[in-house]
């Protein structure tokens, strides 16, 4: 094949296949070209839970123009910028009092989780805890696609690169919090939570607490597990164990944070489950921080962590070329200020919960919908072959892709994922723009319900159901 014969010049996804191409967008709608045909879609997943203000926001266009007039680039270790400072202060001021004291800005969620690992390591070195080099994260988790981020993850993508990831003896995995599949029928929620916490404490004590640096969890998991909310007592139980054994508690809110699942018009998902005093020591964020207009993510640092650095070396080791990029930080700041002024985190929380309730109602009788779960603006639907036994469909059948494609054909974007059930299993994620209206929520519910029904008919015709 010559270069002229190539269907695509992008080395990503399917190498020689042109994926649908977005041509333009306005608000919650996008215009996409596929196989030579153009169609308009309701953007139900905003790429990967990224969008907040929607496409073509005229204020954002002005924000971008103004930012380009006053800032471009400086290397933050030598010459900083006031915009990264202002964005950090905005996040701190709009989080529970005392939760955070500083932030570091970078380019992606993977990068933020990668940097967090190094910050945690240096934190323990500053304290003289040189043996604390082990990290505990969860089975069936996703924290990014760089080597370190994959090492704290547990999914098919990470497994494919297991031979070059960091040592399993150092990057340990605790049981996943997944009530739909793992809470026993005779088990109360409290008993299930205690079983999960006992598993974590057994790992900590079995490994020697003096060697454990951090416990890392997604507050509300996304692509790996499918938005399974933590039950009461789970996150604060982890908090207590971390306090008990001098372990850093790290929350990954790259997908679920920055207003997507905040109960009070704020920014943090964990505020649904924890008090300010129980909050994380380190938190990673991204996605909706720039609403897709700029590539930005970050690491939020608690006073506890910052104070140890101040009492020690007073310096953070390492930096990236585009850390704290002034242009990205200024645009993200203005976007967040607009979101706050319009009360859009409140809107997406309420509209999202309304969507979840409607989906649970409309899909209750579907023979392939095992669970509809989520919170605020982030929901998932898990598909099963047998609702009684919760048997997953065979992976090659790729039911999640069938549903995703059917939704596309019917005018809606959703994100299909596999592997939620210990390497098998199918689910889709839905994460609308913060500006979504009630009418658009009704459309999402209608299209998803219709699409799932059509896939049921097709599976019956082929004998798969």
UniProtKB/TrEMBL annotation:
One of its GO terms (cellular component) is cytosol. InterPro entries: Aminotrans_3 (IPR005814), PyrdxlP-dep_Trfase (IPR015424), PyrdxlP-dep_Trfase_major (IPR015421), PyrdxlP-dep_Trfase_small (IPR015422). The keyword Metal-binding does not apply. It holds the Pfam family Aminotran_3. GO terms for molecular function: pyridoxal phosphate binding; transaminase activity. Keywords: Aminotransferase, Pyridoxal phosphate, Transferase. It comes from the Eukaryota. The keyword Transferase applies. Belongs to the class-III pyridoxal-phosphate-dependent aminotransferase family. This is Aminotransferase. It comes from Scheffersomyces stipitis (strain ATCC 58785 / CBS 6054 / NBRC 10063 / NRRL Y-11545).
């Amino acid at each position: 094949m010559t270069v002229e014969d190539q269907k695509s010049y992008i080395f990503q996804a399917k190498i020689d296949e042109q994926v649908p191409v977005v041509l333009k967008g306005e608000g919650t709608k996008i215009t996409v070209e596929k196989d030579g045909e153009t169609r308009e879609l309701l953007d139900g997943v905003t790429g990967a839970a990224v969008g907040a203000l929607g496409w073509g926001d005229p204020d954002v266009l002005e924000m971008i123009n103004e930012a380009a007039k006053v800032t471009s680039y400086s290397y933050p270790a030598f010459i900083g910028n006031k915009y990264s400072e202002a964005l950090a202060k905005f996040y701190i001021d709009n989080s529970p009092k005392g939760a955070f004291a500083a932030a570091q800005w970078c380019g992606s969620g993977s990068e933020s989780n990668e940097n967090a690992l190094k910050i945690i390591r240096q934190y323990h070195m500053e304290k003289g805890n040189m043996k604390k080099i082990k990290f505990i994260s969860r089975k069936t988790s996703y924290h990014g696609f760089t080597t370190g981020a994959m090492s704290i993850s547990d999914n098919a993508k990470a497994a494919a690169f297991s031979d070059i990831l960091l040592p399993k003896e150092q990057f340990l995995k605790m049981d996943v919090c997944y009530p739909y599949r793992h809470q026993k029928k005779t088990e109360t929620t409290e008993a299930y939570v205690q079983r999960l916490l006992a598993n974590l404490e057994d790992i900590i004590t079995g490994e020697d607490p003096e060697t454990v640096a951090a416990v890392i969890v997604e507050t509300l998991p996304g692509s790996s597990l499918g938005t399974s909310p933590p039950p009461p007592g789970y996150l604060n139980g982890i908090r207590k164990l971390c306090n008990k054994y001098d372990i850093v508690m790290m929350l990954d809110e790259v997908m679920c944070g920055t207003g997507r699942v905040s109960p009070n018009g704020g920014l943090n998902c964990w505020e649904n489950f924890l008090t300010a005093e129980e909050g994380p020591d380190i938190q990673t964020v991204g996605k909706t921080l720039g609403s897709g207009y700029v590539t930005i993510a970050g690491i939020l640092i608690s006073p506890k962590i910052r104070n140890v650095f101040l009492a020690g070396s007073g310096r953070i080791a390492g930096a990236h070329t585009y850390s704290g990029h002034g242009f990205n930080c200024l645009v993200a700041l203005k976007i967040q200020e607009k979101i706050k002024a319009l009360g859009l985190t409140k809107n997406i929380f309420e509209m999202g919960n309304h969507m979840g309730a409607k989906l649970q109602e409309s899909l209750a009788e579907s023979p392939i919908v095992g669970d509809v779960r989520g919170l605020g603006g982030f929901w998932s639907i898990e598909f099963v072959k047998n609702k009684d036994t919760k048997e997953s469909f065979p992976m090659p059948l790729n039911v999640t892709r069938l549903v995703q494609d059917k939704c596309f054909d019917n005018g809606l974007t959703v994100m299909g994922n596999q592997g939620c059930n210990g390497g098998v299993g199918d689910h889709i994620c839905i994460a609308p723009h913060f500006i979504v209206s009630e009418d658009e929520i009704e459309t999402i519910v209608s299209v998803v319900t219709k699409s799932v029904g059509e896939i049921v008919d097709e599976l019956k015709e082929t004998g798969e159901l």
